[in-house]
Amino acid sequence: MHRYQPAQLAALISLISSTKGSVICSNVLLSNPSLLTSLIAVYICRARTASWYAKTSTCPPDLQVLVGVLRLSAGHSRRMCRLLCSEWWHQVRFLKDCLRVTCQQDLSPPQVNYKYNLWLKLCNQVTEWLWNQVRPTLPARTRTKATSEAKVLNLSECDVPVKHLDVLSKGPKFCVEPALRPAELVSVSRSVARRVPEDSRTTCVAECTDVLLKHRPRRVHDIVMSSVVDFLHSSGLTCVVSDKEGFFVVLTRGLFSEKGSVAIAKNFREVSHNPSKIKKQAVELLKSLSLDKLVNKVKKEMGDTLDVFFTAKTHKPDIPFRTIVSERNTWLQIVSRYLQKNLESLVVADPFQVASSDILVDFLRNNDSGGLRAFSLDIEDLYYSLPQAPLLQSVKECIGNQEDEFEFTSRSGVSVEGFLEVLRCYLEATLVTWNGKVFAQKSGVCIGSCVAPILSTIFLAKVDRAIQGSLVDLAIKVFRYVDDYLVFVDRCVFIRKMIDVMKVFREQGHGLTFTCEVPRNDALQYLDLQLAFSPDGLCWRYKPRSQKGLLDYQSGHSRLVKNGIASSCIRSAISKSCPHLIRQSMCEQAVKLRQAGYPDAVIAAVSERLLKTIRAGGKLAATERCKGSRPFSVIPYIHGVSHRFKRVAARFGVNVVFSAKSKLKDICPRLQHRENKKSGKKGKCTMRHGIRFVSCVKGVVYETPFSCGHVYVGQSGRCLNIRLREHHSSLKGTPTSHLALHCRQCGCTPMFDQTAVLFRHREQLTRELVEACFIRKRGEKCVSHPSVLLHDKEFSFLMSTFS
User: Reverse transcriptase domain: which residues (predicted)?
Assistant: First the structure.
């Protein structure tokens, strides 16, 4: 503080104190340090008290006296308490300025600071003593816990400790807040700033870094997932997710392998194909069709076969497995994305298909349903049952039925016949590896394929048109959602009509297998609706078929997600139920929300918003969000950081969407990765290095020393030996890198065998940020240049980790 500031502070305080809305306005009293210290302690405790009531969403007694007999809602109580808390802290800051001015009388600057710190120390002691007296009188902070019966199905004879069962019982959707390192937090802020216009990007980076500098990391419990994985792996156990009911199934590795083999044998056949040759044939086909960009992308992908994983069908006897494939990191994903993009541009004419149950609700509301009765049909194993020859023919017909077939060919870059050849090649190349053997699907399309949904839609549209032409007057109305049909017929001749309709489905179904479900106890379940038949008419209510519980409120998801779940449940119960069953459906959803730990205040707030919508004459049905051109960024949800990033991005016209990074369902792939690593299937470097300078490792920031004392800092996502070999080769010809250029100018030698790994991470942006930090930290000793430029605030934040 320079010599003029004390006088400036004193003048401003004398002006403020005369108009301050405080109890004490006398300048004489404000110059008493003992009184100021006591007031600061009292006001800090009052601010903490207001903050305490805001976090518990309860109304303080003194505020309740003001409102009288009214009972404030939880939201209004929080707002009022936050206003009071803000005002009390405002008073504390003002009184501290008064204390500083009081300490400046006839003292030198060093003595002023010493005296001021002594008074502040005394103030802190008084504050803590006073807070210890007030704290026991405040209401306890209680969290609403889930009351629904948690379930974990253990098919092994091994006893799983209670602490691990408690973790698994939270369900696969439960999210644990990720414990991100400082470099990862900076990477998140940079991913937000990347969507900002170039001229404002530096400002956005600075503001996001300010958020990180003010953030105090709290303790997170990511360790629980690792401890569960360690126990299951060491005990020879594994786990899968229930297919319909949404809980974990624990079983031995032997039983897992046995059930997996049965599931593979059901829809796949063992083949002797060489996956590498299949890829070469696909590349040759793409070259012949002049799809050069697609060829280059396919060549870069190393994976030749699909990964396979399973879910348990716990609703069926013996709990069989469902086989699902993953195209990630394979060349098949590149081809399927190309096919998917072009197939989804087609206009598919289907007389039965509906996008959701809202269409069914509108039909029931607008038609006299008293004389109707219904039954449902389900296609067994839809994706694996699709016959490939008729499937290709239906795609060809769908393309030919478009108004502008030339537009499709120009968009895809190939003729219709060429596109069908690519599709046929893809369907024949979907190979999976299981227990060291290669398998191909017997028919249809694999579950998990990117093109499976659109291909089934095109094929079933052809089937539905044929069925519609044969039904004539047999059915009054037919709906289809994916593989579920709902057929309405005349209730007076229900049995006869049902038999005739099923005969038509079998004749026109191109070999598909249909299973029938009739009303039980005059009730039929279809999608998320339950239809109730009675002599007086037809009623319906919102009741999801799935037995999966709602997301636990203690999950690490954003509050926006949890409020959205509560709003969706209550809105659907009101908008998808007939007037006679609305109350029953809404009460059922409220019970489910309470069982998942949702507080009554959240349920009430959601109901108030829906009530406001009804009062304004709006529609309760969920509306689609406007798909504007506003850029958006997806970041993991981190308590205390993500919402602040969202506010910063909003000032620059960027939307921020939160993702759940660490879900408990990740336990399954972690266990599989441990098993693969143990058996040597994955984790080892597949490259045959001519020169191996160091141990093979991927995704690193490295430092290579020179004989002259300088260093080179770089990063690579590939094997480190590949990058070092490239540096070694660059020394022979014209220097094309900073390392080779330095060696040419200095005459020194790089010591590749002494290369050290400074940091490891799989994301390139995070590695580039750490690389830039080390380059700046090494100063003139480092000869490399950073891939990204660090802001000064970012560098100071990262240095707290690497110092």
Answer: 292-535
Cα distances (angstroms) measured from residue 643 to each of 331, 650, 780, 795? 37, 10, 39, 23
DSSP 8-state class, residue 128: H
Single out the residue of 558, 476, 546, 465 nearest to residue 509, CA to CA. Answer: 465
Percent helix, strand, coil in the chain, to 5, is: 50, 15, 35
Give whole-number Cα distances, 40 to 114, 123, 404, 571, 698, in Å: 19, 7, 77, 48, 56
Residue in the structure block whose two tokens are 């005002």: 87
Average pLDDT over residues 198-203: 90
Task: Write out 549-614 in H/E/C secondary structure.
Answer: CCCCCCCCCCHHHHHHHHHHHHHHHHHCCCCCCHHHHHHHHHHHHHHCCCCHHHHHHHHHHHHHHH
Which backbone phi and psi does 133 adopt, to 5 degrees? -80, -35
* Strands (E) located in 455-518: 477-481, 484-490, 514-517
Per DSSP, the three-state class of 801 is helix
Retrieve residue 220's tokens.
Answer: 């997170």
Give the torsion sign (CA, 585, 586, 587, 590).
positive
Mention every residue, 6+ apart, whose C-beta is less than 8 A from residue 510: 387, 390, 459, 463
DSSP-derived 3-state class of residue 488: strand
Q: Do 586 and 573 form a contact (C-beta atoms < 8 A)? A: yes
* Residue among 252, 375, 345, 259 nearest 310 (CA): 259
In the DSSP assignment, the letter for residue 415 is: -
Phi, psi of 306 (to 5 degrees): -85, 145
Torsions phi, psi for 712 (to 5 deg): -120, 125
Calpha distance 586→610 (Å, rounded): 13
pLDDT (0 to 100) of residue 320:
92
Matching residue, tokens 């990964």: 307
Tally Cβ neighbours within 10 Å of residue 492. 9
Per-residue confidence at 217, pLDDT binned at 50, 70, 90? low
Instruction: Please state, rounded to an integer, the average pLDDT across all residues of the chain.
Output: 86
As a whole number of Å, the CA-based R_g of the chain is 33
Q: Which range has the top average pLDDT, 150-164, 205-219, 704-718? A: 704-718
In order of their start, the domains of the chain are 5-137 (no CATH), 267-542 (no CATH), 685-802 (3.40.1440)
Torsion 225-226-229-232 (CA) sign: negative
pTM: 0.81
Residue 305, helix vs strand vs coil = coil
* CB neighbours of residue 573 within 10 Å: 24
From CA 519, how far away is CA 541, in angstroms rounded?
Answer: 15
Contact 543, 529 (CB under 8 A): yes
* Rounded CA separation 57/62 (Å): 15
Q: Over 647-710, what HEC string results?
A: HHHHHCCCEEEEECCCEHHHHHHHHHHHHHHHHCCCCCCCCCCCCCCCCCCEEEEEEEEECCCC
Handedness of CA 20, 25, 28, 32 (dihedral sign): negative
Instruction: Residue 143: count other Cβ atoms within 10 Å of its Cβ.
Output: 8
pLDDT of 23 strictly over 50: no
**445 touches 390 (CB < 8 A):** no
